[in-house]
Design a protein that fits this description.
The chain contains ten helices and twelve strands. The strands form two sheets. A six-stranded mixed sheet has the order 2-1-3-5-6-4, with helices on one face. Strands 9-8-7-10-11-12 form a six-stranded parallel sheet, sandwiched between helices. The chain binds 2'-monophosphoadenosine-5'-diphosphate.
Length: 284
């Protein structure tokens, strides 16, 4: 007999800390959808087996998190939704035995900015801290909106240079900044939007402040994609300076919203997801 319940989940390693089950389960319940959403802790040497099980029908859709976002690409039959451009997959849909990889981080990021701070999103100078996978998605999201200039600052400069090289041809000017320099301080002052995509500010990381961030001022938008803690030291600093702020839960919610719609065809209850996530974070 055909299985009725849709089986969804997130693969990662480690993955037990993921908040995705909270929001997807709350969304399914509120919409009356018959689905489960679980975490699958998959060490790298078990990824192939898991992909085989998925292709054979054990699951219907998956999110992908660290460290598998690039590694899963070789198992995809098709790519959609920015996956090729960003070079990473965070959402997989299954059609029969075909796996289709998407990247909803780009949508999640830009939607969180536009829904919460639309008037600022239209402006031109963007400073991005970091050069990892999240920074790639953020840079592509801004490049798609034809911003004037993207400035990238990363602790390890050569990674920022590699990211800048990979963005060649996107249609906006791109500069790499030295992580500790006067140049960076000037760029912080003149940026319209400042985004942290690094681990700095996370509860588990000892560094709490980004170089130059003491120069943030009123009129700017400061976005942190870190959401543990929800109010990072950077966001607290920005609020004190009178800047507008956006926390990392919004990106999580909107990337999840897009994934949910790809799997189920249903619209994701964004506000309800936020309430359930805030509750889960408080109970942590
Ligand atoms: P993600 O996919 O979440 O972007 P990642 O690819 O591991 O994760 O990237 C982590 C980012 O956080 C990198 O830009 C990293 O800087 P390096 O390239 O120098 O490693 C940055 N990062 C992590 N810990 C940091 C710290 N303590 N100080 C400054 N930057 C840090």
């Amino acid at each position: 007999m055909k299985r009725k319940t849709m089986v969804l989940g997130v693969i990662g390693h480690p993955v037990s800390h993921s908040l995705s089950p909270v929001m997807h389960s709350a969304a399914a319940k509120s919409l009356g959808l018959d689905l489960t959403y679980d975490t699958y802790d998959v060490p790298p040497d078990e990824l192939e087996d898991l992909m085989d099980r998925f292709r054979n029908g054990d699951m219907d859709g998956l999110n992908v998190t660290v460290p598998h976002k690039v590694a899963v690409m070789e198992y995809m039959n098709e790519l959609m939704d920015n996956a090729e451009k960003v070079g990473a997959v965070n959402t997989i849909c299954r059609k029969g035995d075909k796996l289709i990889g998407a990247n909803t981080d780009v949508y999640g990021f830009i939607t969180s900015v536009e829904k919460n701070a639309g008037e600022i999103a239209a402006r031109g100078r963007i400073l991005v801290y970091g050069a990892g996978g999240a920074a790639r998605a953020v840079c592509h999201a801004f490049a798609d909106r034809n911003v004037e200039r993207l400035l990238i600052a990363n602790r390890t400069r050569h990674k920022a240079e590699a990211l800048a090289d990979s963005l060649t041809g996107v249609g906006c000017a791109i500069d790499v900044l030295d992580y500790e320099s006067n140049n960076l301080v000037d760029s912080v002052r003149s940026a319209d939007i400042i985004v942290n995509t690094t681990s700095v500010g996370m509860e588990s990381v000892s560094e709490k402040f980004l170089p130059g961030s003491e120069n943030i001022h009123q009129g700017q938008l400061v976005v942190d994609i870190v959401y543990r803690p929800l109010e990072t030291p950077l966001l607290r600093q920005a609020k004190r300076a009178g800047a507008m702020t956006l926390d990392g839960l919004w990106m999580l919610i909107h990337q999840g919203a897009r994934s949910f719609t790809l799997w189920t065809g249903a619209e994701f209850p964004v506000e309800l997801a936020r309430v359930s996530l805030l509750k889960a974070l408080n109970e942590d």
